[in-house]
Automatic annotation (TrEMBL):
PROSITE patterns: 4FE4S_FER_1, 4FE4S_FER_2, TAT. Residues 64-97, 104-138, 254-282 form the 4Fe-4S ferredoxin-type domain. Residues 1-30 are annotated as: Disordered. The chain crosses the membrane at residues 33-56. It holds the Pfam family Fer4_7. This is 4Fe-4S ferredoxin. Keywords: 4Fe-4S, Iron, Iron-sulfur, Membrane, Metal-binding, Transmembrane, Transmembrane helix. It comes from Thauera linaloolentis (strain DSM 12138 / JCM 21573 / CCUG 41526 / CIP 105981 / IAM 15112 / NBRC 102519 / 47Lol). CDD domains: DMSOR_beta_like (cd16373). GO terms for molecular function: 4 iron, 4 sulfur cluster binding; metal ion binding.
Length: 289
């Protein structure tokens, strides 16, 4: 007699009584986990995309010359970019998405490219169609205490012109010696070479080189026994001076001093050869004696 074949035995249960998971079930579980992770990341990303602009919106931006106070500026600027088009040194940029409520509005990154008034007449003010940049505020917008300039600023490059002043009545900000410990003048050191290195693309008008056309800062090297670049290249007469003193080591040093004539253009920050800049601009800062 032939033996009767028995049906194959069922898979043995594990010690806890569970049945081993098939490979397909394992793949489905991995896909589900991956979808959950991606969904979680998307939700977090969407949340941050709304939160980050609010954070960056609180960051003070250096606005172009003649800008209204921030709230009025944001309300009146139509983001047309006319000021960007007329700037001879491309100092004015338009804010991107991370700038929150200020997206599309013009600002200046002084360290990358300052406003050196190469246009003489402040063309951005003349180009603005809404008065967001203006020489004179309307009567219903008061001038903040300390924001007004003591007199029309005198442009050094125009000293020999019949009218050497700018029509600005309010400052953009105020320069501050933010890092005196790194300032070459404070340390009694000179400077030789290109102020920001050979690769720096920033431009500036050197009246002794070309009265009308700005050139690359990298194309104008220096050789100074005592660094005075912030004072030397400041475009506004009487805005920065150096007060020399003798240190405890007998070394002659100098302290950059910012005066009320400062308009906050940012040239001193751009030209400062230390990294980070020893002197910086505080946007929308008012004058405090």
């Amino acid at each position: 007699m032939s033996e009767t074949k028995k049906p194959p035995a069922a898979p043995a249960a594990s010690a806890k009584g569970s049945v081993p998971v098939s490979r397909e079930r394992q793949r489905q579980g991995r896909r589900k986990t991956l979808r959950t992770l991606l969904l979680t990341g998307g939700v977090l990303g969407a949340g941050l995309s709304g939160y980050l602009p609010l954070v960056y919106a609180r960051t003070s931006r250096l606005r172009p010359p003649g800008a209204l106070d921030e709230k009025a500026f944001l309300q009146s600027c139509i983001k047309c970019g006319q000021c960007v088009q007329v700037c001879p040194v491309d100092a004015i940029k338009l804010a991107d998405l991370v700038d929150g409520f200020g997206v599309g509005t013009p600002y200046i990154d002084a360290r990358a490219q300052a406003c050196d008034f190469s246009c003489d007449a402040v063309q951005c003010v003349l180009a603005c169609p809404t008065g967001s940049l203006t020489y004179h505020k309307p009567a219903f917008l008061p001038v903040r205490e300390g924001a007004a300039l003591p007199q029309k600023p005198t442009l050094i490059a125009k000293m020999n012109d019949p009218e050497p002043t700018l029509n600005l009545t309010e400052r953009m900000g105020v320069a501050r010696l933010a890092r005196p410990e790194s300032c070459l003048a404070m340390r009694g050191e000179g400077f030789k070479g290109q102020a920001r290195g050979a690769g720096f693309e920033g431009r500036m008008r050197y009246a002794a080189v070309d009265r009308w056309n700005p050139i690359r800062v990298a194309d104008h090297p220096y050789d100074l026994p005592l660094c005075d670049l912030c004072m030397r290249e400041c475009p506004i007469a009487g805005a920065i001076s150096l007060e020399k003193f003798t240190g405890a080591d007998g070394k002659v040093r100098a302290r950059p001093v910012v005066h009320e004539n400062c308009v906050g253009c940012g040239v001193c920050e751009m030209i400062c050869p230390t990294e980070a800049a020893s002197i910086t601009i505080v946007p929308r800062e008012v004058w405090q004696s």
